[in-house]
Structures are given as structure tokens and as C-alpha cells.
Amino acid sequence: MKKRVGIEALAVAVPSRYVDIEDLARARGVDPAKFTSGLGAREMAVTDPGEDTVALAATAAARLIQQQGVDTSRIGMLVVGTETGIDHSKPVASHVQGLLKLPRTMRTFDTQHACYGGTAGLMAATEWIASGAGAGKVAIVICSDIARYGLNTAGEPTQGGGAVALLVSEQPDLLALDVGLNGTCTMDVYDFWRPVGRREALVDGHYSINCYLEALSGAYRGWREKALEHGLVRWSGTMPGEQLARIAYHVPFCKMARKAHTQLRLCDLEDAVGPGPGTPEAREEVAKSSASYDAQVATSLGLNSRIGNVYTASLYLALAGLLQREGAQLASQRIGLLSYGSGCMAEFYSGVVGEKAAERMARADLEGVLARRERVSIEEYERLMKLPSDSPEAKAPAPGTFRLAEIRDHKRIYVEGGAA
């Protein structure tokens, strides 16, 4: 009997502070609607030097273990997907293993491919378990990143930070993956990059959007071909993409999900078997259907709109937001997921939402995670942004969270917040 493998549970960690996106717009002399309607943003997470990728990753993993009652002796693999790692040799995963005192018998490593790194880790863990090599063990995959573009830049309102930790096992209470039906597309492009030594990324914005959409097309068509072969979808009264209950996309900013969904529908319309819109213009018009977007995509964006861009974690924030709102309603239904990383790599995959998804998401307490944040002024946000990355301020971490306390002889020292 084929193993059922996928995501059993998840947990989210976010920075302790945020700014209201309308405050930021007014401070920059911009109509707030440009950020709220134009980008789909409401709030933006703000990190300080003590809330680095390791601290966020460790907090998310500790929260996952505590909230979901994970037996740590069963963890056989720990992977961190990140494009904002803190060392060229020592992985974030090794820090997390030590901070959480996890088994020394685990396999630990980081995966890097811009925003795709977390999905690379998820697929490695899924296939490790599905192959039998995991021998009954579970894996934790953490997507942890800080999106930083700098003050008064075009990318400023699309910053953010946070981490999502995924428990991957043969008990996929959240999402049982359709193992082996993935579609992939990779291209060597320079749409977004961050040279060694830089804190802020460089991005060719319009080109990057085009690369995203082209890679999405290749990945989705690859998935669709396999899904058609296996009878998961069919050319019938509705297009194959419409037969997925929901679709979650990589979300560098919320409005990108609308562009992505239009492109996916365009793929189906261009390849449709039988009569359809005859001209490219007509297909484009049908592809932009607000009804399809509202039904399949819109409900996944609540967390992303309140946290901002989290690179590798952005798709998984969308998944978390979707299952937080509709976990019970979607039980036993198939959803699609599109991961994109600049440079570039896209992967489209699917899975069936578990019967216990709503119960698992309730344990994650996502509303509580957001409610514990502090809203800060633009002045305080700008002060935090100007702090050097190697000089964290003396600040006690909140209970159950981790924080970088100091860097001593090139060694990073982290502390954990005690009980409330």
C-alpha cells in the first residue's frame, strides 16, 4: 500500500513588532490606497537585529513541538529553507538543533534557492519518508526569512519577516501530498539577487514578475499533464485548474496572487480541448475572472496581508491562512500550491486537505501569535532599520521565543524567553 505522506501540522513565528501600512504610506507621501489596494497590504512585520533568521526559525520549531505535542525522539530530519542565512558554512538548522536540544542522530541542513528553498526542503523530506528511508521517523521543515529592501525604496512596503515550521510525516492531518505528481520549471535568470555582504536584496521588479509567470506556466503545465494521466483532473465542463478546491501561491505581495491566478487560468484557456475563447484578448478577459480568484485564492491571503513578504515562508503563510479560515470546509478536498524562487525555480504540486486540519490549525493559535505583536511608529521602525545587524539591543525575549543576545568571537549567542 502506498504511503500517505505530507504535512501533519504547522506553527508560525513572527517578529514582535509591526507597522500599519497606511502609516508608512502617509510617511512617504503616498496615497494609502497604493499600498492597501495596489499591493494588498495591511501591516508589515518589522524585525530588529535580535530577531534574525535563527531566532525566528527556532521559535517556530519550538512552538510546533509544544503546540502539537511532537515526540522529539522521532525527528529524523531537520531542514531550514532560507535565503537570509547568517553564515556561509554553518547552517541555521544546526543552530535550531542545538537551541531546542533535538536528537544528535538527525540529518540537518539548509536549502537555498531564493523563495523556493522551503519547498525544496519539503520535497526532500516528503520523498525521504515516502521512499521508506525515514524508517518511520518524521521531519521538521522550517521556512525562515527576513525580506529587507531599505528605507525609502520602491520595495519598502513589501518587506516583512517570519518563519513557518512544518511537521512532515505519514500522518498528514493538514495536507496529504500527491507525491510524484509535481511539475517543475527552472531558468537561469537575474531577476532578484543579494550578493555576499549585502543586507538588502536587488530586484528587477517587472522582469521578476514576468519570470514568475513564465516559470509558473511551465510548472503548472507539468503538474497538469501528470494529474490528467492519473485522473485527478480532466478536460470536462470546467478547466483542470478550476477542479482544485483552492490554490495557494507564492506571495511576495498579495496582489501577485491575482496575477499568478490569471496566468494559471490562461494556461488552461490556451491549451483547452474543444471550443473556447477564440482570440488571445478574449482568453485574457476570461482568465481575469474575479469570481474564480475570489473562490479559489482570496481566502488564503489574510496572514500575508498582515505580515508582508517572508520569502521562503510566503507560500506556507498562505497555506496556513487558508487552512485557518477553511480547514473544516476543505477537508478531503484537493488544493494546488505554487512555489517560486527567483533565479529561478517554480514547482506546482497538490494535496488533499486532512480531516483533522481544523483541529490542528486551532492548536497553532495564529490569531494569538499576531495579537501579541506591538504596533510601532514610523520613527521607531526607521530607528530599528538603521541598527547594525551585528549589535542586537539588550531586550528580553518573550516567553517561548528566542533572540540573538550577542556575537562573541564570531559566535552567535541566543537566549530563550522564560515562562510567563
TrEMBL record:
One of its GO terms (molecular function) is hydroxymethylglutaryl-CoA synthase activity. Residues 3-169 form the Hydroxymethylglutaryl-coenzyme A synthase N-terminal domain. One of its GO terms (biological process) is acetyl-CoA metabolic process. Residues 176-269, 288-390 form the Hydroxymethylglutaryl-coenzyme A synthase C-terminal domain. InterPro entries: HMG_CoA_synt_C_dom (IPR013746), HMG_CoA_synth_N (IPR013528), Thiolase-like (IPR016039). Keywords: Transferase. SUPFAM superfamilies: Thiolase-like. CDD domains: init_cond_enzymes. Belongs to the thiolase-like superfamily. HMG-CoA synthase family. This is Hydroxymethylglutaryl-CoA synthase. It comes from Myxococcus stipitatus (strain DSM 14675 / JCM 12634 / Mx s8).
